[in-house]
From TrEMBL, chains A, B:
May play a role in DNA repair. It seems to be involved in an RecBC-independent recombinational process of DNA repair. It may act with RecF and RecO. GO terms for biological process: DNA recombination; DNA repair. Residues 80-174 form the Toprim domain. The lineage of its organism: Bacteria, Pseudomonadati, Pseudomonadota, Alphaproteobacteria, Rhodobacterales. This is Recombination protein RecR. Transmembrane segments: none annotated. InterPro entries: DNA_Rcmb_RecR, Rcmb_RecR, Rcmb_RecR_Znf, TOPRIM_dom, TOPRIM_RecR. Gene3D superfamilies: 3.40.1360.10, 6.10.250.240, RecR Domain 1 (1.10.8.420). A zinc finger (C4-type) spans 57-72. It comes from the Bacteria.
């Protein structure tokens, strides 16, 4: 089937996306070919546009299409508070909640001796610079509640101690969560941080 | 975040692929942007190429990049045997097994009164024409072992009865299958079709 190489190559590339394997990549490609007009052609064009225009915000590390991302450029957002997140997906998750009205700082990962990811790779010096330059009064450490995330949070807290108010996200029972399905650590955290009614 | 519309639009389109939801589409797009050179740019180009060149084989309904697909054009493949499949994914699955050396006929679905899919929509008249024109001696009905698939197989068998030898795929225990996990129907079929050692 020498003639099918472009379609085969497309399947191979699609299978490299997270969440897709060889089988689902084949299904996706057949779906794309079946929906050529409404889906495949616009998708190809949009991918090219994003490939040409997407870039990291020079200030916070968010992904946008300009040197300074819309959040950093939005002067209605509070400048005195920086929310530190591991990656852009976490920033988007925070934005979907619609609660936070300050700025962000995207680390791009967590500290890891094993993968030789040190403070420089995570733009932690740039965070320290921003705290001084933007007259920041509070840094919220919204890192994942994993060992790596918490190690990184401790390191950043050490760097910034005494310069700004530091806080981290509350730990406890998630909304809609059932106690029976929660791990012991979460229940312990929720109990220790219990609030008077 | 008005500036993020291209990336947002890309996420929305990706979420329309089978097997991807909003969350995995966001992950996929972030992965694409992170791997812009090795993945996003070639994927955009390849999608455009496939959008421009992919077409249905005029003879069998397979997808390729020419009017006649490589299988129909390959004169080393037997012309006397046609394997009837529901869709192109099934044809690819048959080809991966590497066993069948004849030609195919892709129906593009199954008969369905509910969705008003009749014989014309499934290219069944074209199959009947091919049986006469290509001097076919055997038609293998490789339709899915579902109610719709079997209804369609019966209809085709009625149309072709007396003109060619008709066969269908054997039913039984799949290779590596454990009896305890098989449904009753499969065990019954395997028992009824038991073979002497």
């Amino acid at each position: 089937m020498t003639d099918r190489t472009d379609i085969d190559a497309l399947i191979d590339l699609m299978a490299r996306l997270p969440g897709l394997g060889p089988r689902s990549a084949r299904r996706a490609v057949l779906h794309l070919i079946a929906k050529r007009g409404p889906l495949l052609t616009p998708l190809a064009a949009l991918m090219q546009t994003v490939a040409d225009t997407a870039r990291e915000c020079l200030n916070c590390g968010n992904i946008g299409t300009a040197d300074i991302c819309p959040i950093c450029a939005d002067d209605r957002r509070a400048t005195g508070v920086i929310c530190v997140v591991e990656d852009v997906a976490d920033l988007w998750a925070m934005e979907r909640s619609g609660t936070f009205r300050g700025r962000y700082h995207v680390l791009g990962g967590t500290l890891s001796a094993l993968d030789s990811i040190g403070p420089e790779e995570l733009h932690i010096p740039r965070l320290v610079d921003r705290v001084a330059a933007e007259e920041v009064t509070e840094v919220i450490l919204a890192l994942n509640a994993t060992v790596d995330g918490q190690t990184t949070a401790h390191y950043i807290a050490d760097q910034l101690e005494g310069r700004v108010a530091l806080s981290s996200l509350a730990q406890g029972v998630p909304i809609g969560g059932e106690l029976d399905y929660l791990d012991d650590g979460t229940i312990t955290a929720a109990l220790n941080a219990r609030k008077p009614l």
